[in-house]
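Mods, move this if it's the wrong board.
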Amino acid sequence: MISLALGLYQDIGVNETTPCSYNPALQCAAPKVDFVEGVAIIIAVVIVVLVGSLNDWQKERQFRALNEKKEDRTVKVIRKGHEQLVNIKDVLVGDIAILEPGEILPCDGMLVSGYRIRCDESSLFGESDPIKKHTFDESHGQYDGEKPRDCFVLSGSKVLEGVGRYVVVAVGERSFNGRILMALRKPTAATPLQEKLNDLAELIAKVGALCGLILFGALMIKFFIQLKTKANRYAYPPHMCVDC
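Not the wrong board. Structure tokens:
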């Protein structure tokens, strides 16, 4: 904006002259082109910002579409006495969901029936060993060694073996995996690479601002010198020229 303002002032407020192309002895009005530099800077900034914004928006859109496609799957539930396939987003608390090998559980539940069920909960707790699950009746007051028997299946865990049914007790943000995902949405600390890039961008901004100030000062000095020179030149009558 400063460059554009100075260019407009040079073009509008100052009547500059230059030797004519057809006769160097004569003085002609200088072309009004000082504003071009400011306009070019603004256009360059607008192009860079628009390209960067559109690129980020497109990547974010593709990322969201990929996540939605990854989560777009169905699960078998027993609702109103009938077995049916429903989207995992439509599972409700109180549904009886069917548990099968290889399935990643979409919700939390309590096992009501099953046979030799083992789940991989390493993504939730970091435990690499499969966790054996028991029905509610089998786990009530019973122990496997020193640990009480577990009748709860958690969202995000993977069924390694066994089949069974469980009653849904928590879905979405209320489920165990949902609470983890919501916690991950909080702002995280910048990585070392991001910190270095931020420092580099700050350094570039400071150096650029310093160079801009130096250039601005040099142009202002040149501008005032030109004004002083023109004032001295017009203070005296021009020399007469026979050949003019």
